[in-house]
Amino acid sequence: MAVLISIQNVSKSYSRDSLKIPVLNNINLDVQEGEFLSLMGPSGSGKTTLLNLIAGIDKPSGGNILIANVDISKLGESALANWRANNVGFIFQFYNLIPVLTAFENVELPLLLTKLSKSERKKQVETALTLVELQDRMSHYPKQLSGGQEQRVAIARAIVTDPLILVADEPTGDLDRNSAEEVLTLMDRLNKEFKKTIIMVTHDPHAAEKATHKLHLDKGDLV
Amino acid sequence: MKVLKLVFKNSLRHKLRTTLTIIGIAVAVVAFVLLQTVVTAWNAGVEASAADRLISRQAVSFIFPLPYAYKDKIESIPGVKLVSFANWFQGVYIDKNQFFARLAVDAETYFDVYPEFLLTKEELKTFKAERNSCVIGKDIAKKYNLKLGDVMTIEGDIYPGSWEFVVRGIYQPRDKTVDATQMLFHWTYLDEKMREDFPIRAGDVGWYILKISDPNNSAQISEQTDNLFKNSRAETKTETERAFQQSFVQSTSAIITSMNVLSFVIIGIIMLVLGNTMIMSARERTREYAVFKTLGFSGKHLVGLIMGESFLISAFGSLIGVVITYPLVQSFQDFIPKGFFPVFEIATITVLLAVLAALSIGIFASIFPIQKALRTTIVEGFRFVG
């Protein structure tokens, strides 16, 4: 398998007033195409920051991040937004669905940035929602869905554009055991059946078991 | 699903807040239009004045008369085409609260000097021929259901007695700015009665109206007129009709200025209200904007979402405001003493100005929340706790 993500000497620090707080220290990491990687570590270890950098929603203070041979650390805001729209699917802990939109409309959101026609968008949204077994909840609003269902809608939104990588930040953190299991099974299926490269941040050792590789972060270092 | 649909759905997210904001904008539009309409009505006389007309009145005060004998002398001034005159009659018709202007005028010349009062040739001919006849504006005819041949009985106050006039003409205003609520009758009829009952008041004219050939000579002709009667028992003060009308309005200029300022203060207040609504909305959606950015939506899209919502609310508010303005302004007109404002029309420009102001507020009110949304990074957005 080829290397899809290559993180080279990446460091990240935040400034708070005059204080510089280091979060990641000189990280080097390669992720293979089709890998399901889980990032674990205590709070404040930098795992979410690393995930944000890989997803292109934050920029490193130093080093390079190459994804499919594109150095995203060099991209400007606008180019990075385009890159994210085309290459990354996001799954958040708190689902982050838009409350005034139905499940269908939420999943359709990323497709509005593409040149697909209305009928093509409809077809893709229906496929994604069928994959997460929510085809009968398309016209439901987030508040009419359970937490597990909301997270499955979020997964459908993440995969609807058929992205290169899926990033998930504590995807089961806000779910009960059964819903969490459903979500993990779904992610496992996306990895095994659809060959999706997944990077997941989790506290939960059970969730991490689903991954093909596990990495631990502690105080900004890979251990 | 389009961005417009999302804008619409977002605006309905807090129905009560949005409804109150829309009502606020609608009330502001109504208040602005009403205040501006009153100001316009107040200035209607000034705006309707003609450049080629001068008014010559008693120099001490408008309430003192001028001798009728001045007419020939004024007519002899070069540049004066025609001279007419009028007297304020006042009196009471049916109800003292039902006010409208009642003037004794020079029947032979008055309608030549005021071509904006449109009268048919037949009506003018009959009016001139009958000394106790009168001409009324179409609004007065409509209001009192008066027709040609009807008799109007007016109880005199400045000129005591019971006065009967036969309606021989109903004039049409040339346009909306012309007062259609006047009642005009023969000065000679008034003068005759004065000669009989109060000889000391006979031969008195309230003011002269001079129609001049060239408005550019108004200052020169005014000076010549006043010089003619210098050191006489009744000196004149001659000025353009506009200046004459302005002298009436000037006494209330502080009120008019206040109303003008107030109408714009209202716009400012509603801008703050809408701005506050948009700031609250944008603040509540900080995480959502982070989601949009994460999914690849650009700053342009966020500008569209926030400004679109603000614009939609202000557009809806101003639309409701315009719809309810007309009946409300009509109700206001019914509420104030009749005839207080002879010309009380909502000017199209006033409505356009109100709508334009409301829509501009929609745009301006969204600037701060847009700036905030654009400056907030995705990571900060996800960390935000509202």
What is shown here, in short?
The complex is a heterodimer of chains A (223) and B (386). Chain A has 223 residues and is of the alpha/beta class.
Keywords, separated by commas or semicolons:
heterodimer, A: 223 residues, alpha/beta, globular, B: 386 residues, alpha+beta, two-stranded antiparallel sheet, 16 helices
How would you describe what is shown here?
The complex is a heterodimer of chains A (223) and B (386). In chain A, strands 6-7-8-3-9-10 form a 6-stranded mixed sheet. A 4-stranded antiparallel sheet of chain A has the order 2-1-4-5, with helices on one face. In chain A, strand 7 (165-169), helix 6 and strand 8 form a beta-alpha-beta unit. Chain A is an alpha/beta fold. Chain A is built from 7 helices and 10 strands. Chain A is 33% helix and 28% strand. The longest helix of chain A has 16 residues, at 177-192. In chain A, helix 4 packs across helix 5 and helix 5 packs parallel to helix 6. Chain A starts with a strand and ends with a strand. Chain B is of the alpha+beta class and 386 residues long. Chain B has 16 helices and 12 strands. In chain B, the strands form 2 sheets. In chain B, strands 1, 3, 4, 5, 6, 7, 8, 9, 11 and 12 form a 10-stranded mixed sheet that branches. Chain B has a two-stranded antiparallel ribbon with strand order 2-10. In chain B, helix 1 (3-11) packs across helix 13 (299-335), helix 2 runs antiparallel to helix 14 (348-364) and helix 13 packs antiparallel against helix 14 (348-364). The longest helix of chain B has 37 residues, at 299-335. Chain B is elongated and about 95 Å long. In chain B, 37% of the residues are buried. The model of chain B has no long low-confidence stretch (mean pLDDT 89).
- Largest sheet, strands/sense/barrel of chain A: 6 strands, mixed
- Percent range for β-strand residues of chain B: 15-25%
Major sheet description of chain B: 10 strands, mixed
Helicity range of chain A: 25-40%
| Shape, principal axes of CA atoms of chain A | globular
Note the gap between the termini of chain A. 24 Å
Uncertain segments of chain A are none
- The chain-level mean pLDDT of chain A equals 92
How do the strands of the widest beta sheet of chain A line up side by side? 6-7-8-3-9-10
Structural class of chain B: alpha+beta
Structural class designation of chain A: alpha/beta
What fraction strand of chain A? 25-35%
In oligomeric terms, what are we looking at?
heterodimer
How far apart are the first and last residues' alpha carbons of chain B, in Å? 27 Å
